[in-house]
Structure formats: C-alpha cells, structure tokens
Amino acid sequence: MSQDGLVSVPVLHPTPQLIERIETELKARGITIFARIDHAAGAAAVGQALRPTVVLIFGNPAAGTPLMQAEQTIGLDLPLKILAWEDASGISWLSYHDPAWLARCHGIDPATQPTLAAMTSLYAALTADF
Length: 130
Description:
- It contains 5 helices and 6 strands, in the order E-E-H-E-H-E-H-E-E-H-H.
- It is α+β, with helices and mostly antiparallel strands and about 130 residues long.
- The chain has one domain: TT1751-like domain (TATA-Binding Protein), CATH 3.30.310.70.
- Strand 5 (about 80-85) and strand 6 form a beta hairpin.
- The longest helix has 15 residues, at about 115-130.
C-alpha cells in the first residue's frame, strides 16, 4: 500500500521479531543503526496504551552525504527510517517514505543520484524478507 510517498507493507512476523530481524539485516549490510525508538514503551511510561510501534533510524553517511550535498534540506529526512507497527486487527506492518518521493519533496532529480535507487532497493529487500 502506498499513499503520498508513504509505503506500508503487511508482514507475517510480530513487531518485536521484525525489529530484531531488520537490525540484524542492516548490520550484516554494514549499515549503521543510529536509534531504536519504542513508542509503545514511551506510552506505557506515561500510563497510556499503544499497540507495538517501533522506529529504526539507520543509514550510511557515505550514501547520504551526496544527497545532502545536492540539497541540504533532505537532511531533515536522513538518516532513513522504518516503522514496524501492529494495527487494530493484529496485523504487523512495515512503513517507510519512498526515497523517490523524498527526492521530489527536496527538489533532487533522482536520475542524478544513484543512491536513491540503492535506498529503494534496500527498503524492498527489508520488506520482502519478512
């Protein structure tokens, strides 16, 4: 499912397993994981309930820097992010922003930046394996 640059893919594994598997895959590819944000844990800490909702922030400065050299505002959307979440019916999803959409938002011509194709391929691989 894709909507205005947001891609959401249903997956078979529960959110905690998804995050572990994605972290393992990213590390195997030599990609740095900058942060893991567990929104459900944050909600629980303030006495509120939230279905599993975890964001991973990851990237590779060698890949992202040329994009920021082309247009620094894309730094607002880098490093990359992927959201693992569970909907009300218990289905797990992975969601991310389409790199080509990000490029358009920041006025970057995708044809001049092969990194965007690599990012798209990475997201496809991360969401296909689960």
